[in-house]
Specification:
The protein is of the alpha/beta class and about 280 residues long. The chain is built from nine helices and nine strands. Belongs to the short-chain dehydrogenases/reductases (SDR) family.
């Protein structure tokens, strides 16, 4: 790596923290967002002068814009945007209130949207940069019990696919990271559940998922530090992918969905093509 400045949202724990520590260990600089002021000293002590803590809430547009501005004021540029901040919410679609759904989208979609819009003027002026969209297998395919969360992540994914084409001419690259299940606080402290829990769903996949995800803490198959190392390789790649699965479980989920889609297309392609206008008689 060569003199890169990373702007990473959500560096208090999990993959965001692992990425920040890995980047700093490589001798680079990190501006990381936190929610609590009592975490500032510990983060900046990781690498004095190269680790800058920023108090920001990605759902608060003003605080995001201030964090980006402070990063440029401190380091002079931003090379990598790591849109990591987010949290899961468990519950069937019917169990999810409108307020809960909006909160899920505020954090997992609009949070990324706010960061992207705040950072793009900086990256365009530089004519360089790499935007990393932190997604999940639940953003690539809908999981029962994670329906609204999956929808929010999927929205960020598709936005990033469009974004990649919109900003490529400015020298800005985009990669969507589809994360498998990692040993972080996602299945523990940061995981939310809908207020409503309907007995009708108890024996359905959505209901059973409530118990499954809660019992997964400490048993997740993937290592956050190894994810961080993989992300650094992508940032350094001459031709980074638009989509990158992180975890063998993510590879499996993505491959299965692609096979299912191809199967549906092949099976129904005659019906699909039947909607075309018939040729007018001559």
């Amino acid at each position: 790596m060569t003199n890169k400045v990373f702007f990473i949202t959500g560096v208090s724990s999990g993959i965001g923290r692992a990425l920040a520590e890995t980047v700093l260990a490589a001798g680079e600089s990190v501006a990381g967002t936190l929610r609590n002021t009592d975490q500032i000293a510990a983060f900046e002590a990781l690498a004095p002068g190269r680790a800058k803590a920023l108090i920001a809430d990605v759902t608060d547009r003003d605080s995001v814009e201030q964090a980006v501005s402070d990063t440029v004021a401190t380091f002079g540029r931003i090379d990598v945007i790591a849109n990591n901040a987010g949290a899961g919410t468990v519950g069937a679609v019917e169990e999810t209130s409108e307020a809960e759904a909006r909160s899920i989208f505020d954090l997992n979609f609009f949070g990324q949207f706010n960061v992207i819009q705040a950072a793009l003027p900086v990256l365009r002026k530089q004519k360089s940069g790499h935007i990393l969209t932190f997604s999940a297998v639940g953003g690539f395919t809908g999981f029962p019990g994670l329906g609204v969360y999956s929808a929010a992540k999927a929205a960020a994914d598709v936005m990033s696919e469009a974004l990649a084409q919109e900003v490529a001419s400015f020298g800005i690259r985009t990669t969507i990271l589809t994360l498998g299940i990692f040993r972080t606080k996602f299945a523990a402290g940061s995981l939310r559940f809908t207020d409503a829990e309907m007995v009708e769903y108890a024996e359905t996949p959505a209901g059973k998922f409530r118990g499954f995800i809660g019992g997964l803490d400490g048993k997740q198959p993937n290592n956050p530090e190894k994810a961080a190392q993989a992300i650094l390789q992508i940032v350094e790649a001459e031709d980074p992918p638009l989509h990158l699965a992180l975890g063998q479980d993510a590879v499996g989920v993505m491959s299965k969905k692609l096979d299912q889609i191809k199967g549906d297309i092949d099976r129904w392609k005659t019906l699909s093509a039947s909607t075309v206008f018939s040729q007018a008689a001559v």
